[in-house]
Design goal:
It is a single chain. By secondary structure, this protein is mainly beta. It contains 2 helices and 15 strands. The protein has a 10-stranded mixed sheet with strand order 1-2-3-4-6-12-11-14-15-9. Strands 5-7-13-10-8 form a 5-stranded antiparallel sheet. About 35% of the residues are buried. This is Secreted protein. Keywords: Signal.
Amino acid sequence: MKLQIAILTFIVSASVQAGDGTPTDGKIADEAKTPSRIVRSAEWPDFIGGTISVEQSLTRNSKGQYVYRYDDQTEATKQYHEASCADIGMNPAKGESITVGPGSAAWHCSSIESNSASDAKSTDYVIAYAPNGQVSAGQNFISYGTVRFNSSVSGNIQGSVQIDNGRCHTFYSEYYPPNTVGNHTARILCFAHAPQTMNTLMEGCVPRACASDRGSIRAY
């Protein structure tokens, strides 16, 4: 809790720009110098019972998608990303993530254990856990999708979390060395428009294994 409060103080002192409660594309700061970068802001928990608007700097890739990278962020955003992951006992994921859908935003977290030596008998695997639960209709909510994985070879872990037939959707990709055991969790923000049941999907892959899981979130 001390870490979260300290980070909240840092964010406020850094004057993180206020938003309207949902992520929005900001103005490009200098089109002549950075035409491929935008800023989005979203309301997130401040760890003391309220919310705070936090910015994410996104860079356009060759496919025209806007990509989040931890290393590209301001110190205030890095601090919030760290706090968001520490809240669930993890660290900020250092790969790339893409989040799409109106009112959608995400933080990606990881916890990694690298084996000291290769085990020829070890089995590569991925276990997926889709978001589930109940939320209030007419407001934003946060859901969690997680994969547990073991990869004996180097390469990327890739996957995605989808809510309500992909209306809120976040994709991630991160490189890991061989003989890595770990977890990857996506913390995704979405909006429940009305009382309904929204389907969810969690997918994940390492070079030699994949898994998926389906769930549901009920808005009441």
